[in-house]
Amino acid sequence: MLAAAVRLFNTRGYDATSMFDVAESLGITKSTLYHHVSGKEQLLTMAVDRALDGLFEAAEAALREESAATVRLKDLIRRSVLVLADRLEFVTLLLRVRGNTAAEQHALSRRREFDRIVTDLVKQAQAEGGVRADVDPATAARLLFGMVNSLIEWYRPDRGAPESIADTVADLAFDGLRHRA
Known about the structure:
By secondary structure, this protein is mainly alpha-helical. It has helices at residues 2-12, 19-26, 30-36, 40-64, 69-86, 88-96, 102-128, 137-149, 151-154, 162-175.
């Protein structure tokens, strides 16, 4: 049920999708759908929480590591790409919310909390000397996740193993494109 709603939200847009549309796509009645959820906003909340929960799990795993902040940051980037690959439609929907409903405002609040975690990790990496200190930590965090989030535009499972793509994104984020002699 949730996957069907997310597909419709991503295809038609949240506002343009009705509960009737979701029920019809599942071959059930609206009353059957309402037996399981209170409405479209609950479906949206469940969907964006699935994406955000994955990102917070990735952050918790990276932060638990007993290693330098730069290593943990690179690991968080890698883990986030894996979350995106695993929950592509959910992350796509998350990145499209704009704050027009209570569910969207809640999602944006959680995204800001995640951004703070990344920014703090960048600050730690800078303090340890593992990341350039001349870059604003919040800007660096946004740019790193701009690269990760761009995958929603082009990533498809047939374009390569998620682990390989995660390694490439993390390596490019920390080593750049320049050939090293």
